[in-house]
Amino acid sequence: MSHCWTTKAIKEIQADYQRSSDTHLIRLNLPTFPGIHLYLKDESTHPTGSLKHRLARSLFLYALSNGWIKEGTPIIESSSGSTAVSEAYFARLLGLPFIAVMPSYTAKRKIQEIEFYGGKCHFVDHSAQIYAESERLAKELNGHYMDQFTYAERATDWRGNNNIAESIFRQMQMEPFPEPDYIVMSAGTGGTSATLGRYIRYQGHNTKLIVVDPENSVFYDCYRQNCCDIVSNCSSKIEGIGRPRAEPSFIPSVIDDMIQVPDCASVATIYWLEKLLGRKVGASTGTNIWGALLLANQMHERGEQGSIVTLLCDSGERYLDTYYNPDWVKNNIGDISLYLKQLPNLCSYK
């Protein structure tokens, strides 16, 4: 009976995938940087509204195939929000109880979305507490701790099988510069950057993977110092990315370089992009695009032409109380005006 339920559950997830189309690739022209094209892989169009939908699907399939999830198994995940929203969606699809362990300051909209899909939220005071508390709950409830931070890089088939890297290169085939000079990705678990970096090498592309990191995150220092034991007592203010420790899924060896992005730059960029696209995006997207624009400027100074691809991770509608609240930004991020002045007239949407 257990085997039959697992087979049915996997088919249910695969059928859900078949009902979903691939995400769009949006091209932004850069008048200030002639001959350089910037592309946004719009992951906000997934059923649960973010890049983490891909990860949640892979984590469930991985756990089901390993026999870790059975009928009725409670699912516990440590998450600042988007992964938990997506996992709550798949848990409901399979009729499983779901609990998200998250910092108490997580955006209200994300909490509401988790609860919409039938999940429950369990709060801790600091992001560093989510790991131990998730393990404790899983043991107490005889459940399964999904542990995105450990399994993100191994749950996804980086060789192909419709992963995000394969999708990007397939969608770029008809573009003026089909092989990107750079792919820019921020790190949360490190799983997506691991998939991208491995795929690039496996396929023999000349594309360089650049990982951007916000303030109060240790990924950048770990990469620069070649040490994954660095920890921080602070939490990133850019939800979904940046960590107080180097997560097991973070693979520095597949990264070509890293850029540290000020939080003010990340938030300023989403205000600028809203005017360009006519819609709101999350702050992690701002981190990605700021890094991509720095690279475009470097290419321009070298007299190069080409393409850069980065990710639009999620919609800004989840952050109306935070990043799109001027008072919250002033009190929690700081003065973004200097960065806003650097952004106008860089891009046009095509």
Which segments are poorly predicted (pLDDT under 50) over 5 or more consecutive residues?
A: none
**Main pleated-sheet profile:** 7 strands, mixed
Total helical segments: 13
Number of individual domains: 2
Family: Belongs to the cysteine synthase/cystathionine beta-synthase family. Cds1 subfamily.
GO molecular function, one term: lyase activity
Enzyme class: lyase
Keywords: Cytoplasm, Lyase, Pyridoxal phosphate
Task: Give a structural overview.
By secondary structure, the chain is of the alpha/beta class. The chain folds into 2 domains: 21-51 and 161-347, Rossmann fold, CATH 3.40.50; 53-152, Rossmann fold (3-Layer(aba) Sandwich), CATH 3.40.50. The chain is built from 13 helices and 11 strands. Strands 9-8-7-10-2-1-11 form a 7-stranded mixed β-sheet, sandwiched between helices. The chain is globular and about 65 Å long. The model has no long low-confidence stretch (mean pLDDT 93).
Helix-strand blueprint:
Blueprint: H1 2-18, E1 24-29, E2 36-42, H2 52-65, E3 75-78, H3 82-94, E4 98-103, H4 108-116, E5 120-124, H5 130-141, E6 144-145, H6 148-155, H7 164-171, E7 182-186, H8 191-203, E8 208-214, H9 219-225, E9 257-261, H10 263-277, H11 283-301, E10 306-312, H12 326-332, H13 337-342, E11 348-349
Parallel strand pairs: 2-10, 3-4, 3-6, 4-5, 7-8, 7-10, 8-9
Antiparallel strand pairs: 1-2, 1-11
Helix pairs in contact: 1-2, 2-3, 2-6, 3-4, 6-8, 10-11
